[in-house]
Amino acid sequence: MKLTCSPEALSHALQVVSRAVSPRTTLPILNNVLLETSPEGLKLTATNLEIGIVNHVDAEITAEGSVTLPAKILTEFVAQLHDDKLDMELDIATQTLTVKCGPYHDVKIKGIGANEFPPLPAREDGLKLVIDQADLLPAIEQTVVAASSDDGRPVLTGVLTQLDGENLTLAATDGHRLAVKVIKATSEGEVGEEGANSVIIPARALTELSRVLKGDGTVEMWLGRSRNHVFFTVPGIEVMSRLIEGTYPNYSQVIPEQSNTTITVSTKDLHERTRGVSIFARDSANVVRIKTEAGEITISANTSEVGSSEASVSAEIEGADIQIAFNSRYLLDVLALVGSDKVAMGFNGPLSPGVVKPAGKDDYTYVIMPVRVAM
């Protein structure tokens, strides 16, 4: 293998694929990134056996070949190169890559043979979805925040993704909150039987995908007939992930059909007041109390060892006044992601779930379970 490429382009590609490298693996080869020549130039691949990321770099290929190199060392070294040209040449006998760039004229990096690198699963024929990045990127951010980090219930560490006609629904819950987002998608290929278009994608895979989305253009999502893996492709980059097996909870039954109290309030103002008050709730399980009265919301927190705080914000209130308590972190998360100037909040009493939506829209629903406290 012998080639020339831009160190800046290679650095960016390494940073992208290295996110699939596991820092805690018992297989040394998984600490490496696979470099191989291809018709598009230089192809980089990394995987932790659950997630795989492929990125292509424009390169002038003099001799074809492949090798795996330590991802951390290679990424850190290339990141501090600033010249226009980087030359790489592989010694096949020793699996050593020689790198030349600017003042670095004889850098040698020991590698492992590419034949030991686990191959990524091949993309099967099946269902293809085309989604606007401008829709998918916020949809991922608005839902993965509610996914669980507890591996004891694997299905809750994923995002349920359902296709119904042109609507693609993403839903995630950790048992304390639920986030549901509906976006548009164009489908091609085999739509499949009922239920075949409902899969659970690991939240981590979607998070890694969101980091390569730029917000413009489209992303292609591929589901093979076997429904074992999902593939996302954007120009030059592919993100692959295993799907999570299991039955996702029927989340729709958690969403209240109507509310006895509806509040419309400035997202920015409510976020600022809640964030300020929550400083005093850190030593009391992050609990903040919300009370409505006379056209305003009062948010308060009280910790005996620290002190107390209270703030108010004007709001449009319909229905009965309400007193309810939430984990402030769950409330702050949705206020930071809802993407609208005003939010509509619905309540049915101090022990019933609260619903938060962007005012005037139904494409995003966030449900928070209340905290039982003495008011």
**Bulk shape:** elongated
* Mean pLDDT over all positions: 94
N-C termini distance: 70 Å
* Assembly classification: single chain
Radius of gyration: 25 Å
Features of the shown structure:
375 residues, alpha+beta, nine-stranded antiparallel sheet, 6 helices, 27 strands, 44% strand, elongated
Summarize this structure briefly.
The chain has six helices and 27 strands. By secondary structure, it is α+β, with helices and mostly antiparallel strands.
Folded structure, characterized:
The chain is built from six helices and 27 strands. The protein has helices at residues 7-17, 71-79, 133-144, 203-212, 267-278, 328-337; strands spanning 2-5, 32-38, 41-47, 51-57, 59-63, 66-70, 86-91, 96-101, 104-110, 126-132, 158-164, 167-173, 177-184, 186-189, 198-202, 218-224, 229-234, 237-242, 261-266, 287-293, 296-303, 307-314, 316-319, 323-327, 342-347, 354-358, 364-368. Strands 6-2-3-4-18-17-16-10-14 form a nine-stranded antiparallel sheet. A nine-stranded antiparallel sheet has the order 15-11-12-13-27-26-25-19-23. Helix 5 packs antiparallel against helix 6. The longest helix has 12 residues, at 133-144. It is elongated. The chain starts with a strand and ends in a 7-residue tail after the last strand. The model has no long low-confidence stretch (mean pLDDT 94).
Topology:
Layout: E1 2-5, H1 7-17, E2 32-38, E3 41-47, E4 51-57, E5 59-63, E6 66-70, H2 71-79, E7 86-91, E8 96-101, E9 104-110, E10 126-132, H3 133-144, E11 158-164, E12 167-173, E13 177-184, E14 186-189, E15 198-202, H4 203-212, E16 218-224, E17 229-234, E18 237-242, E19 261-266, H5 267-278, E20 287-293, E21 296-303, E22 307-314, E23 316-319, E24 323-327, H6 328-337, E25 342-347, E26 354-358, E27 364-368
